[in-house]
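A favour, since you know our structure tokens better than I do. Go ahead and set the record down below.
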Amino acid sequence: MGMGNAPIVILKEGTKRDKGKDAQFNNISAARTISDAVRSSLGPRGMDKMLVDSMGDVIITNDGVTILKEIDVQHPAAKMLVEVAKTQDTEVGDGTTTSVILAGELLKKSLDMVDSNVHPTVIASGYRLANAKAQQILEDIAEPVSIDNDALLMDIAGTAMNSKQINNSKEFFSRLVVDAVKTVAKEENGKYTVDLNNIQTVKKTGASMDETELVKGLIIDKEPVHSAMPKVIKDAKIALIDAPFEIKKTEIDAKIEINDPTQLNAFLEEEENMLRKMVENVKKTGANVVFCQKGIDDLAQHFLAKEGIYAARRVKKSDMEKLAASTGGNIINKIAELEAEDLGTAGLIEVKKVQGNDMTFVTNLKAAKSVSLLIRGGTGHVLDEIERSLIDAWSVVRVAIEDGKIVTGGGSTAVEIAMQLRDYSASVGGREQIAIDAFASAMESIPTTLAENAGLDPIDVLIEMRKQHKAGKNKFAGLNPFTGKVEDMFGLKVVEPYRIGKQAINSATDAAVMILRIDDVIAARGMPMPAGPPGGTPMPGVAEE
């Protein structure tokens, strides 16, 4: 109160504020709700989610980042966990569910410590120490992999597909994925880099998923604009044009008065000559193929067909850019300025019929390595899920080739890290060791979740895994969800890139520490303030569409 007992208004009317343990409790509860939303989708026995948006569009998937992108998350702390999944997806392409579950478990453990009067700063410090040690352990237990080891690269792709709908055909798809990634890989100074933009996907319904094919080149979902145009062009010289083969309309309203029929003929002849000149400009450069981003007039189509030039119109901008990169051509904005040096080259361009539609296949490319996957499936939803699965698979093969390191799955790596962290915590003085022990317990949430999703007793599974890992007996011992037994994951070919674990642990730690250090939430009017017990019903502020 100020002078004369007048109230001092600092925050706007309607602003809500939570402080201290209440703020931490609410933030952690909201974040854990997000973690619980994806928990049941982890592993090969995980369940799928059906997401329906406000327009009625349906997505069926168990891909963590897809689920979190599609649900309407409003709570700011919950959004941080969505960011964890997005970062994991951008950096690695897989392991999104793992990273979110780990972040949720770290927050759950921290809540118990806060209740025991361990200060959040101490917990954050312990988590940072544990993260650094976990990264070191991960580095030590990683195994090498090279780009020439096709069998191991296929195992990596197959592991990424284990929890997907295409699991039954994973060997077939693994071969396609490894071939695709190795084709676009580039070597510089003994290190490999893979640009996934050079891998294109084209989806067509009407056949089984096993009829998916890999094309070493580009597939353009366009047909020739005129039936008389050639369907097969060898040694193609390609003009890429971002301008219409049409007569340009005047900028302002114009009126043309014609008093004599000969004037009309002259007018029509001039239009025809302008279109003929455009085609002649293309012809004189030596081009025998035209990909046009704009329209092509009917008369121009006729002239192009007479010259034996293949032409496709209204080609997507993204396809034009891929064609430019792959053929070595330049995209031209004025037809009159097209020169021979602007043309791209391809060994073969072929028009093929796929599911009743003509598509253009551009192959034998010399300028750059590009591949396309023509994905087949029964329905659009199946095609979308196959595409998501393949993107995950070639992303993990990419990072495995780039890093040259792999670790085993099935929760084996998580248990090995947890056991070594517990030994490490004893050497750390102060209360931080409590947080390091909690971090170790959080790591074990990965194998316990895999066991729960497989309908197994998580305690029995964890005890058996600890037993096999103890004293360095078998660092590859992990859960086989199909048999319910703890087995050697390396022997079962359940392997994943080292970067999945590295990024998941880093992102989860950063998000947990950031949320944990918040002790005051000031929300403007209209923003939800969650409440409710952790693990209970979803908080307001985390709504599924």
